Structures are given as structure tokens and as C-alpha cells.
Amino acid sequence: MTEAETMPAKTPRDKTPLSGSASKTLPQRLWGNAYLLLSLTTLMWAGNAVASRLAVGQISPMGLTSLRWVFVCAILPWLMRRELAAHWPALKARWFFIIATGTMGFTAFNALMYLAGYSTTAINIGILQGAIPIFVLVGAFLAHRTAIGPLQALGVFVTLLGVMVVASRGDYHVLTQFAFFPGDLLMILASFFYAGYTVAIHSRPAVPGLVFFTALAIVACLASLPLFGAEIALGHGYWPTPKGWLILAFVVIFPSLISQICFLRAVELIGPGRAGVFVNLVPVFAPILAVFILGEQLALYHGLALALVLGGIFIAERLGKR
Question: Which membrane topology describes this protein (predicted)?
């Protein structure tokens, strides 16, 4: 999963009458279809999990993390320069919040996910991201004392059980001997970071979503440079291969830019609550992409884990809120 997955936008819903829809061009109709935009968004975020595996040996983890935001910041701040200037007082007043959330949600999450790609599968990375909504529920309770009902607690337990099934590869000996794959543990840690980011941004500055995203991207760029420098200093950095540059281009264009624009537009159309539900498609799309693009094999425990993760989310987010 990557960046503005659960970022709320503070813009009114689109109330354009349907009567004029027949005269709209195809691009206009697509731009007004929130469900298509959200499906494409989550597909691109799932592609980021696949990119973490494709990047192995092609571009280093910290190189991908840092260069991703370097290229984003070579484009987006310039395009948003007037909006950034207009909202600078509001951003400056919350400078520590912006630095903390940008570092946690954009830099740390992606760095850990790309590092995890070296020692686990894209299927596991995708399914483990499915636990983020549950971690958000727990984080909201810890940070804001948001009440958790019995069904929501059951949903948390079921989802965490699914996480343990993935991390243990369905083998209880892994649990008893704590012999987890490093990549799975890194992805669980990454999910905690992103959940913390998601809880935090509910109190973000009152600025447009794309302005806030641009500010976080700048922070992520600056915060990732020391990681890239440390990787090079330790002898683990290397120049991207031609395939590595293609992977970087995909990550910059799709998960980093187009997906954010699509998501923010969808939030304008149907609101953040309904749009946020689509984040749950990431653990569905990621295994499918991993099988078709990487040739990874789905095991029985993957199906069980996915059922537990999605089932836990349904119990917590749907049944638990009735």
C-alpha cells in the first residue's frame, strides 16, 4: 500500500446533475466515475508491492525510496507552487506534524516495504498490508481513546490471526521457534508505521489534499536522502540497471502521482468514508499481480490468511459499527 490511501479530503461532494452525463466525453465520464478511479488507485498501490520484488538486484531499496521522492519533488512542488505559497502559513504552523507524518507514512513505510521485498514474496507483502485498517483501529483507541466494541475487538483478533498465518507460512513451528522471515517482520513494522500515519492525518492542517500531499512528499524526499547515503556508505548501494530505471519510473508515475490524483478526485465525488473502503482491495490485487507478473505460487495458507484478514476487516469495519 502506499501514501494517501486513507487521507481525508476536505472538499464537498460533487453534485453535478446526472441529466448532462450523456453529453460528456469518455474522459469526462471516466473522471466522474469514483469507483473506477478507486479501483485503478488500489491496483496501482498493489503494483507497488510487486515493484518491491521486481526491484531486487535492479535498484537498491533506499535508492528506490529516495529517488522516488526526488523525481516526484522535481515535478509536483513546481506544479503546486502557487497553492503551496497560498497555504504556507497553515503548513508552517504545523511544521513538526508535517515532518513526523511525512517521515513515518511516506519514507519509513516505503523504505521498509522495499527492504522487505528482498526476503519475502509480493503476495505476503500485499496480504500483510491488509492489516493496516485494523492497526488503525487499535491506534485510534490508543491515541484518541476511540471506543472499540466487542465485534471490533473480534475483528482485530481475526485479522491478527491472518497476519500470523502469513508470517508463519502456515507452519506453527515457525511460531513456536520464532523463525519468521525477516521480510514479513519488516512488512508488519511498515504497516504499523502507516497505521500511525493514518491515525495522525485525521488532525491534519486544513489545506487541500493535494497541497498536503505535496508537503509530505517534500519531507519524504529530504528524510530519505540520509537513508540512501547510509546505504551507499555501507557498501549496499548501487546504480540502477536499465530495468531498475523502468521500475523507478513506474513507481514515480503510478503509485506516487497518478494514484494520488485519482484517489483525491474519488474522495471529492463520494467522500472519504466510502472511498476508504476500497483500500481493502490492495491485499486482493497484490497476490493476483504477483502470480501473473512474478510467477509466484499461491499456497493454501495464503488463501486462509487472506480470508482471515478480509474477514476481520469486515467484522471490525462493517458489523462492529452497526
Answer: Multi-pass membrane protein
